[in-house]
Amino acid sequence: MEPPRPQPTTKPKSLTGVPPRLVVTSRRTRVLAFRADRWAAKKAAAQAALAVAEWDYPLLDEHDFLRAVHGLVDTAVAAGGKRVSVHLADQDNKILVMVLNHQAGEQEVVGAVPAEVAVLRTIDACGAHTDHDGHAWWALLDAQPRPKKRLA
Questions:
Q1: Cα maximum dimension of the chain
Q2: Distance (Å, whole) CA 62 – CA 53
Q3: Residue 1 CB neighbours (<10 A)
Q4: Which of 37, 126, 138, 147 is most exposed, with the fewest beta carbons within 10 Å of its own?
């Protein structure tokens, strides 16, 4: 019989010693970074629209897309931090918009996605979370939404 093995007193680190980062593969992506100031949301929405325009989604509701990016960036700026980043990705006629505020260290629980984003017609899903890199807010938009129903 052998004595019990010693248990580590700290949590094990990843194999590389660096916390895992967001990894998106096999799809188009774009990352945009901005200083967290009152103009960030307007700049981010404009640059994100230009980036997504290259992906050729003619049925994408540009108004919803701009409002989603603007609302998520505004929320990230209000939560604090010196910079925000906008991460865009697409797959199967959906566009993911994720905004991080990169405020590391002791953090409060992240606030919810703003109501004006969550109620947009082309939003399929949205959410928020906190991890090692700060707060993150995200929305998944349908890039080929069904036509609006006409009332008879």
A1: 81
A2: 9
A3: 2
A4: 147
Contact 32, 48 (CB under 8 A): yes
Compute the distance between CA of residue 48 and CA of residue 85 in angstroms, rounded to an integer: 11
C-alpha to C-alpha distance for 94 and 21, rounded to whole angstroms: 22
pLDDT digits (tens, 9 = 90+) for 4-63: 766 655 554 444 444 555 565 667 899 999 999 999 999 999 999 999 999 989 999 999
| Burial bucket for residue 118 (CB in 10 Å: 0-12, 13-18, 19+) | middle
Q: What is the pLDDT of residues 78-87, one digit of tens each?
A: 988 889 999 9
Each residue's pLDDT tens digit, 89-147: 998 899 999 999 987 655 565 677 888 999 999 999 999 988 777 889 999 999 987 76
**DSSP three-state, residue 128:** strand
Taking Cα atoms as reference points, which of 123, 119, 72 lies closest to residue 99? Answer: 72
* pTM score of the predicted model: 0.78
**Looking at the DSSP assignment, which residues form a beta bridge with residue 84?**
34
> CA 62 → CA 38, 58, 137, 142, distances in Å?
22, 9, 19, 11
